[in-house]
Design goal:
Layout (H helix, E strand, L loop, with lengths): L15 E5 L3 H12 L3 E5 L5 H8 L3 E4 L13 E4 L4 H13 L3 E4 L12 E5 L2 E5 L6 H14 L4 H17 L4 H12 L3 H7 L2 H12 L10 H4 L9
Parallel strand pairs: 1-2, 1-4, 2-3, 4-5
Antiparallel strand pairs: 6-7
Helix pairs in contact: 1-2, 5-6, 6-8
Bound molecules: ligand SHN and 1,4-dihydronicotinamide adenine dinucleotide.
The site of ligand SHN has 20 residues, from α1 and α4.
Length: 232
């Protein structure tokens, strides 16, 4: 049966999330959760090298033992990523019976949610999922899209956000706003940002908004990709 997963973006900042297992799959989940600001409770008798690194850093509380039911106390999400399918199944059942959303890495149908392949460019989040049909395809598509939507899309999003704030603050009606926003989105802004052509960027803004970079409070620093633009 084809599952109709509902796509949402979760704000997990400061929320406790349980990850069961310490192998490469668990480490990938932990990395994504930390990048989203979650507080991770990591439970596994042993950790792989990537998981050790994450467990030593901020935001992770590590418990070196097998899963126990009390690990579910106070968490908003659960990721069952141990190498033991019986442990994953039991933890998933317990979590679901408590109404906690759960991801099961070796038996997706036993859980409520799956994780898409994804990458960020500033506020832009591009995610790909196949309903579990082919994670390898999700990964390849993510890699292709990362090339198409390069680092310059981080600064582009900052610029579009600043332009949008200025337009909305300037009054006018929704139809006018929409026209300006699409003029910017359909322009060569990304191309100019990639080339470091600040004068070109400034020109496009002036054409669309009548305001330049300085009017929007943006300097060269804002127009360069930042490390956090590409966080997992
Ligand atoms: C259902 C889901 C549940 C979940 O984990 O959330 C799930 C399940 C399973 N994955 C398996 C295998 C692989 N998973 C990957 C990679 C990723 N898997 C991810 C998500 C998901 N995997 C969810 C569905 C997403 C969708 O709808 O597409 C990604 C996208 C996101 C992430 O994990 O962060 C991440 C890529 C991140 C990136 O690079 O961008 C690779 C590729 C590789 O390793 O090179 C392989 C080997 C190749 C292959 O099998 O295709 C197996 C069989 C295990 C076995 O063989 O025993 C199962 C279990 C089953 O299918 O029953
Ligand atoms: N969803 C996905 O993206 C993918 C899923 N898989 C599946 O994910 C599972 C995990 O894969 P890997 O990380 O490579 O496994 P792994 O074998 O490297 O690690 C398993 C981890 O589980 C821990 N563990 C074992 N018993 C436990 C218990 N009772 N409580 C808590 N932790 C326990 C171990 O200490 C170890 O850290 C595999 O079963 C595989 O079928 C594999 C590839 C991708």
């Amino acid at each position: 049966m084809v599952l109709s997963y509902y796509p949402v973006l979760l704000d997990v900042r400061g929320r406790e999330v349980l990850v069961i297992g310490g192998g490469p799959v668990a480490a990938r989940k932990v990395g994504g959760l930390l990048a989203a600001g979650a507080v991770v409770r990591l439970v596994a008798p042993e950790l792989c090298a990537a998981a050790v690194e994450l467990a030593l850093g901020p935001g992770v509380g590590y418990h070196a033992r097998g899963f126990e039911a009390s690990d579910l106390d106070g968490v908003v999400l659960v990721f069952c990523a141990s190498g033991d399918s019986a442990v994953n199944a039991r933890a998933a059942e317990l979590a679901r019976s408590r109404g906690i959303f759960v991801n099961v890495v070796d038996a997706p149908e036993a859980g409520d949610m799956i994780v898409p392949a994804h990458f960020r460019r500033g506020e832009l989040l591009v995610a790909v999922a196949t309903g579990g049909a082919s994670p390898a395809l999700s990964r390849r598509l993510r890699q292709r899209l990362e090339v198409e939507f390069g680092p310059e899309w981080g600064p582009l999003l900052r610029l579009l956000a600043a332009a949008r704030r200025a337009v909305l603050a300037g009054g006018g009606d929704g139809a006018d706003h929409r026209r300006v926003f699409y003029e910017l989105v359909d322009s060569r802004l990304a191309e100019f940002l990639r080339a470091g052509d600040w004068a070109g960027v400034d020109g496009l803004l002036r054409e669309a908004l009548g305001l330049g970079l300085a009017d929007l409070g943006l300097g060269p620093d804002d127009l360069q990709p930042r490390p956090e633009d590409g966080r997992p």
